[in-house]
Amino acid sequence: MTAPGAGAPHASSAVAVEAVVRTAGPAVAALMERVEQRLSQLAVGHGPALARHARATIAAGGKRLRPLLVLLAAGEAGVDDDADRRLVRAAVAVELVHSASLVHDDVLDGAPLRRGAPTVVAEAGRIAATATGDLLFSRAFAELAAGGEPDDVRTLSSAASALAEGELLQRADAWNAGVDLDRYLHRCELKTGSLFEAACRLGALASGPSARADALAAFGRRIGLAFQLLDDVLDIAGPPSRTGKARGTDLLDGTVTLPLILARERDPALATLDLRALDGAADAEAVCERIAATGALATAKSRALAVVEEARDRLPDLPQRQRHLLELVAAGVVERYA
To answer: pTM score, two decimals?
Structure first.
């Protein structure tokens, strides 16, 4: 289970985010632009080497889905300067934590590429990459602390702790083909769902005291889970021309994901698979074909779609326009697989 966004950008996801921003109107578009400007500002400092790697990491970007969720969870934007400043800080901090976690994941995985470009660890080594991730983490919390909102800091701190816990679980599960479904799903919620959850909660908090915060956070957590499930399906389904990485990269890393968990129930040989015995991309490709032959990919996709529906069902009573925009985000998560 590589971190979401580990390969080249999924064009369908990026297009979906752009479509949501266009639909949301000029206020949200203006806030997203402020987020980009602030991210660029925060990528400099602390010496030219770290600044260069941090700037490259942020510039490589992604879909900015998490910052967008912060803004949409807040509801109407552009009507209160104080609220907008808090939203921008929160959106920036969420994206910085996401970027930091990707840099650190690449260190742990020894990943050569991310989004089609060399990773920091591949280009500059473990020490520089670890320091770059640390810098991005520190900038994230400094950004929130500057706003003087303890609830915001607590929310993001909880998500960052969950990310670390999820990574530790994944490392503990490495090469274990017997990992069960419940443990895998829990790991996904920690590694991916927690930051989506935090994004929605931060947006709700910025819009003022709201009984909707918990429900919006639950929506975010389910969307994040579905996002990761589909990312893991893509790792097996490919093709590399779309994902930017070889099929079965997770298998070569010793990471057991949903497709293999489902497939091993249908193919006894997969249940005894020794992941350590895989020798390169050709072996991983062959296992991917065996997994696909069981029909596990379709089942995994169906499970992810069911999680998206659960997320929609968890949306609280919201203004029609806000609900529509959040549902568009949910649809965009599905489109990344289509």
So the answer is: 0.90
* Other C-beta atoms lying within 10 Å of the C-beta of residue 52: 17
Best CA proximity match to 256, nearest among 287, 302, 294, 293: 287
Question: What number of other Cβ atoms are within 10 A of residue 45's Cβ?
Answer: 12
User: 181-188 and 150-173 helices cross at what angle (nearest 10)?
Assistant: 140
Structure tokens at 185: 């799903």
The three-class DSSP label of residue 114 is strand
The tens digit of pLDDT for each residue in 124-161 reads 788 888 888 898 999 999 999 999 899 999 999 999 99
CA neighbor of 316 nearest in space, from 173, 214, 224, 239:
214
Rounded-to-integer distance, Cα 300 and Cα 22, Å: 31
259 with 296: CB under 8 angstroms?
A: yes
**Token digits for 139?**
């900038």
User: What is the rounded distance in angstroms from the CA atom of residue 154 to the CA atom of residue 149?
Assistant: 9
Please tell me the CATH code under which domain 11-335 is placed: 1.10.600.10
Q: Which of 22, 62, 1, 31 is nearest to 325 (CA)?
A: 22
Rg (CA), the chain: 19
Closest to 1 in 3D by CA, of 206, 222, 234, 213: 234
Alpha carbons 266 and 291: distance in angstroms, whole number: 9
Residue range 273-303, pLDDT digits in tens: 999 999 998 999 999 999 999 999 999 999 9
Distance CA 338, CA 334 (A): 7
